[in-house]
Amino acid sequence: MKVVGIIGSKRATGNTATLVTSALDEIKRHGIETEVVYLGEMSISGCTGCEGCAKTMECTIDDDMQKVYPLIREADALIVGSPTYFYDVTSDMKAFIDRCYSLVMFDAGDRSCWVGAGNLRSPQPLLGVVTVCEQSDVSNIRFTADVIQLGLESVGYRTIGVVKAPNLFRQGEASEDGGALDEARRLGARIATTLRLQEQASLLV
Ligand SMILES: Cc1cc2nc3c(=O)[nH]c(=O)nc-3n(C[C@H](O)[C@H](O)[C@H](O)COP(=O)(O)O)c2cc1C
After folding, report:
1. What is the whole-number distance in angstroms between the Cα of residue 39 and the centre of ligand 1?
2. CA distances from 94 to 40, 80, 83, 118, 169 (A)
3. Atom of ligand 1 nearest to the CA of 86
4. 75-98, pLDDT tens digit by residue?
5. Ligand 1 in contact with 133 (CB < 6 A)?
6. Mean residue pLDDT across the chain
7. How many domains does the chain have?
8. DSSP annotation of 88
9. Domain of 32: which CATH number?
10. Structural domain span for residue 156
11. Disulfide-capable partner of 135 in 11, 75, 140, 150 (CB 3.0 to 4.6 Å)?
């Protein structure tokens, strides 16, 4: 079993990274392997809309996303985090989500019918979402959480929880925010428990 964290901030020790790694630490505590991907250290371009993936579910762009596809294909769960940049995810996170388009296949005649790579897996892979913003009113997170959750649900992930942590500006400030840390750890614990439950239940059905 493995859980992969995807960090959409360029600040490798920033608030998003602090909360995503806290959730992963909790998962490790449950004896589950983890790995972290820092999108800010990679070169991942946006989707070009070439539709080269339409029949193959393989992206044609040769950049660092080719290192990420195998990781997310093998992961039983993802914890995906982004700071809020103007009410939305960072450009690195948006590029990552858009490049997950290759993991979705649409019917050629009726594009209202599609299937995501996650829908083909059993058990269905899980998703945890972590978002932060500077303003004290959590509503400023606005599209950040939805873009991650709705995008990856289209790829076939089942959302276990969404952390929305306001009032975080300085790099590392999240490590002093007991409430946000608790929420992140609780998300990690719920993902670990659900993974164990899936393992147990799959022996019965
Ligand atoms: C370009 C940019 C845009 C931002 N836009 C918002 C915003 O719309 N609302 C908000 O509350 N914070 C905003 N922030 C603040 C960040 O969300 C905040 O500092 C966050 O804690 C950074 O997370 P990180 O440490 O993981 O990078 C913005 C910061 C930057 C650099």
Report:
1. 16
2. 12, 12, 12, 19, 21
3. 8
4. 999 999 999 999 999 999 999 999
5. yes
6. 98
7. 1
8. B
9. 3.40.50.360
10. 2-202
11. 140
